[in-house]
Amino acid sequence: MNILHLETITILLIEDNEDFSKKVFNVFEKTSLITRASTLSQARSLLNEKTFDICLIDYTLPDGYGTELLGELKTIPDRGPVIFLSANSDPEVKKLCFSLGVDDYIEKDSNFQTNLLIRIPRIINTNRHKKRNEALSAIYKDSFRNEIIGESTVIKELRLKLDILRSESISSLLIRGAPGSGKELAANYFNKDIRNQRTLIKVECSLVTNSSFDIDFLGFQKTRFTEELPEKPGFLELAHEGDLFLKNIDHLSLQNQRKLLSFLTNREYLPVNGTTTKISKTRIIASTNSNIENCIQNGKFLKSLYQRISLHTVTIPSLESRLDDIPFLVKYFLAIQKESSLEMSKQALTLLKETDWPENVRELFESLKEAYINAKLRSSQKIEAKDFKKKNLSTNIKLLLPRHERDVNKQSLDQYLQKAEEIYWKEAFKIFNGNASRLARESTIPLSTINNKIKDFDLRSYYD
User: Fold this and answer.
1) Of 3, 176, 290, 460, which is most buried by a Cβ count within 10 Å?
2) Regions of the chain with pLDDT less than 50
């Protein structure tokens, strides 16, 4: 193993306990390159003066928590890794620290000196590899930031349709899809044009009010009565000859829908306080996860506006309809974590493909992030099935339905019924907040039966 010489390492120890500090200094008694700060304010002063190869930070300090420094350390160029030192062995505290960017967590127990000697050289070596991987990850992430990941038929068809529509001179595009399916990513993909870089202005329509619409969209021009106010270009000007992405367009009020429709009719607008109309050759990209047809019937969306924006429409497929893309999505997630050796077990990948994802890719990535942190807590470079919280994953029972003649048999029926029963009891247990006695009392199902189901389906694990 390649062990660095500790004499070459500059260490900042942020620790208020005198006795513990002496023990740390004893570990590095042959070096004078360790500097101590007993408070956060002292640490900030030292960090402003010089850089350190590694920071050892106590979790609890007289003027705050060590975690308060993490955000500041991230802004320091070429900063070294961070190790937290704490007597707290609570897994949730460790999890919090790792989620905030700590590189390692060493408990203040009888083995802490040995752990420091072994783990500091290892972490510094790892950090050097990490910086190299970060550069590669940034290149990878930048290359794929506008790509729609996947090789399923529905995703290939989506990419092809967006490519065709991009090559045509269309004036608007409506993107439909469930929450978390990737509508904004589709807008990014549609906007990208290698030959002609187009501006993309994004607007969250739920934040646009009746009073803000005119200035936000049309812009504001000075007059001799408003000299003290700065001029402000509106979205239509900013997106001229580019794209204006209206996220959740169904959230616009009817009043603002009429104003948008007025612009789309002749592509002209008059800024607030303006005296001359302007023309905007922006291309409108709108998205929604609502049933706009129902909104029209309920009088909440203008039919004429819908006809204007929906001439060309794409629908983003749900993750359920493209489960075969999960390995590609996982591969992308692992690649952007800045750790080249990170991988996922086959069991974990199988679990993800058998899980129901009502919030689609967004929910998948949130689960992957949590599992990644749990793997780091185990000091592992492999994400295992156990790193995913059971209560956050629900088996997609549709996957157990027969698709071919060969799938219809007693074994598959038993498997389906067992899974259906497990889901039933899981939901029942959730409704009663894990209270078996109350569940028995309210449902009149014998408590003994409920306890058996709790044991059969390991229901307690969802509430641990």
Assistant:
1) 176
2) 1-6, 464
